[in-house]
Design goal:
By secondary structure, the protein is an alpha+beta fold. The protein is built from three helices and six strands. It has a six-stranded antiparallel β-barrel with strand order 1-2-3-6-5-4. Helix 1 packs antiparallel against helix 2.
């Protein structure tokens, strides 16, 4: 007797699992629809069928008409956009500019071409590659023309300027 109850429970459990996979497939078919009203109708029909199945106490695999599945297939193909990965040829040229995804470059070394100061005493440096950086902190930090510096990424999208022979850095932002 116990063996028959175990067999019956296994049959019910497998039917429920099959119904859930069918439900997931139907949900994904509804989600792919591009028209808002069609998508809403699809989800409403699916919810009504699941609610009816739960009220009856049966595990029922929910299926939508094949016409709906065929109607969504061309929409998926027409909306497909190839993903192109763009890697800059010279990562140092874009270092410090805002990007959606930034690679971890560590420290980048540059030579200072010119050093000027703004009216508030903060330095503005021009590098040999044409980049212009401005100090954002009020701390005093001495730089000379021709000096080798590094710029590294700091916390919260900030950048730190420093030299290897000095144990201090200052925050900078890229102007150009």
């Amino acid at each position: 007797m116990r063996l028959t109850w175990i067999a019956a429970a296994l049959i019910v459990a497998s039917t429920t699992a099959q119904a859930n996979t069918g439900l997931e497939q139907q949900l994904s078919i509804c989600a792919v629809k591009s028209d808002k009203l069609d998508r809403l109708i699809c989800f409403d029909d699916l919810a009504a069928k699941v609610q009816q199945a739960n009220a009856n106490g049966h595990a029922v695999a929910v299926t939508l008409p094949a016409v709906a599945a065929q109607a969504t297939a061309p929409a998926v193909q027409s909306n497909a956009v190839p993903v192109v990965s763009s890697v800059p040829q010279n990562p140092a040229a874009d270092f410090g500019l805002q990007k959606t995804v930034e690679e971890d470059l560590g420290k980048l070394y540059f030579e200072v071409a010119a050093v000027t100061k703004d009216p508030y005493g903060k330095f503005i440096i021009t590098l040999n590659n044409g980049q212009v950086w401005k100090q954002t902190e009020n701390d005093r930090y001495k730089l000379n023309k021709g000096q080798i510096i590094y710029i590294e990424k700091g916390a919260l999208s900030s950048f730190l300027l420093g030299t290897d022979n000095r144990n201090s850095t200052t925050r900078v932002k890229r102007l150009k």
